[in-house]
Design a protein that fits this description.
The chain has 8 helices and 9 strands. The chain is α+β, with helices and mostly antiparallel strands. The protein has one domain.
């Protein structure tokens, strides 16, 4: 009986990494689905802004905590353009977490998708370096909508990070000031099978694009193949 119990425990332990990896793979696929749906919204992210973004971050189905007021937590993926100056093709994703209280009340209990555009190298390097508080460590603003950014405010155009939300079918710019972004080390390990930080994945090309992210990265390379920001 003890031998059988031991074998069962070994089997369970062996299955844990595979289950954790599958969870992150499904999350990446969902990130791809969310981005595709958002980019197909008629009044969506201005193409001009997407073409000038160094990175995008997608958080599917962020939910408000059941306990506490306004606390929210989401998990998703960061994808950046490759190359020293973010001028190459979109590369492998790094898993990220979104935490904060300032936007919790705006969710209204509904699962909300978030899309963030990182608009300059300073913002990208800040996010890749450590845990970042939006509005303090990196300037942030609600992203403008429409076919072009001509009507965008100066605040939005100067921001390092522009953020959007989608809930109940409604797509809009939303302020995430006060919330934090951080690399999800456990998720990266589960996905890639080894300890990796966001900088190693994004800037050093430590791993190739995983199969689960192929559609997500292909979509970005199709919709915004070149970085048109001024360097």
């Amino acid at each position: 009986m003890r031998k059988i119990a031991l074998l069962m425990m070994v089997a369970v332990w062996a299955a844990l990494p595979a289950a954790a990896q599958k969870r992150e793979q499904e999350r990446l696929k969902e990130c791809g689905n969310v981005l595709k749906e958002i980019l197909n919204v008629p009044d969506n992210v201005p193409q001009d802004l997407l073409n000038r973004a160094e990175c995008v971050i997608i958080f599917p189905s962020v939910k408000k905590f059941a306990v506490g007021i306004g606390g929210s937590y989401g998990r998703g993926a960061l994808v950046c353009r490759s190359g020293a100056d973010f001028t190459g093709p979109w590369g492998a994703p790094a898993m990220f977490a979104l935490e904060g209280g300032s936007f919790g009340l705006q969710l209204g209990g509904q699962a909300t998708d978030f899309l963030l555009l990182v608009m300059n190298p300073r913002g990208a390097e800040s996010i890749l370096g450590s845990k970042v508080k939006l509005g303090a460590d990196a300037s942030a603003a609600a992203g403008p909508k429409g076919r072009n950014a001509a009507a965008a405010t100066d605040v939005a155009l100067r921001a390092e990070i522009l953020s959007y939300s989608r809930a109940r079918g409604l797509f809009a710019g939303i302020s995430l000031e006060g919330s934090t972004l951080r690399s999800d080390g456990d998720a990266n390990k589960n996905l890639y099978g080894k300890e990796l930080n966001a900088r190693q994945i994004v800037r050093e090309g430590a791993v190739p694009v995983p199969p689960a992210a192929k559609d997500l990265v292909a979509l970005l390379n199709k919709r915004s193949p070149k970085n048109l920001s001024e360097k």
